[in-house]
Hints:
Layout: E1 4-14, E2 17-28, E3 32-36, H1 43-51, E4 56-65, E5 68-69, H2 75-81, E6 83-86, E7 93-97, H3 98-110, H4 123-136, E8 147-148, H5 154-168, E9 172-176, H6 184-201, E10 204-209, E11 222-227, E12 230-235, H7 238-246, H8 249-254, H9 256-267
Parallel strand pairs: 3-10, 3-11, 6-9, 9-10
Antiparallel strand pairs: 1-2, 1-4, 4-5, 7-8, 11-12
Amino acid sequence: xSKVLQIENLHVAIAGKEILKGVDLTLRQGEVHALMGPNGSxxxxxxxxxxxxxxxxxxxxxxxxxxxDLLGLEPDERAKAGLFLAFQYPTSIPGVTVANFLxxxxxxxxxxxxxxxxxxxxxxxxxxxxxxxxxxxGMDPEFARRYLNEGFxxxxxxxxxxxxxxLLKPAFAILDETDSGLDIDAVRTxxxxxxxxAARAGMGVLVITHYQRILNYIQPQFVHILLGGKVxxxxxxxxxxxxxxEGYEWAxxxxxxxxxxxxxxxxxxxxxxxxx
Length: 276
C-alpha cells in the first residue's frame, strides 16, 4: 500500500503570530498536488513547519506520515521518515562539495541507525550511483565537484535540489516555489527532472506556487487554494485555469472571512527575514 501524508487542523505561529489557522490536506504516494495562494498566505509556513524549522511553532493539529507523528520528530528524523523539502532559496555551503554533501545525506537517510563519524556508503558504490543519476538528469559530472550552491545560478541551485531528490528517493517531496527566480527554460528543465524522478520512485509531490507556469510542466491531479492561512478550496486542474483567468481576487470575493484574515496577516507580519 502507498504511504499517506495526513495534515489535520494544523495551526502554526511565527514569533507569536498565528499564520496557519487550521490546514487540512491528505497526500498519497504517486499523487501530485499543487498548493496555490498569494504571497503571505502561509504556503512556505506550511512547508517549514512540516520539516521542523524551529522558528515555526505548531500550536494545534497533527501531521503524520504513514501513521508516524512527524511533529514529534527532529528535522533529520523527518527526512529519514520519507519527507523532503526543496527550498525556495537553497543555502550555499562553501567548502563542502555537492558529492560529499550528497554522500553524507544519502548514507544518513538509508542507514537511519548510523552515528555521526561512522562509515559512509562506499565511495565507489556511491560514485557510480551519483554519475548515473546525473547522466539521467543531463548534468555535467564536474557539477559534483563544486561547492554546494556556491556561485550557482538560480537554475543550478534548483537542479542540485532535484539531484538530491533523485538520490534520497523520499516518499513525499515538497517543492516550495521551485520556479522562483527561474526563467522559462530553467523552469522546464527543472520540472522535467522532477517528473522523471518522481515517476520512477512513485513519490507524492506537493508543488507550492502562486504562478501557473510550473504547473504547465508538473501537472497536478489535485489543486488547493490557501488564503489567510486556510485551505478555502480544493479541486482539480480546473482551479489553476480559473486562477489564471480571474486571479486571487476571485477567491477573496468568494471567501471574505479568509480574505480578512489575509489582510490581518499582512498588517501583523513579524519583522525579520522569515518567509510565510
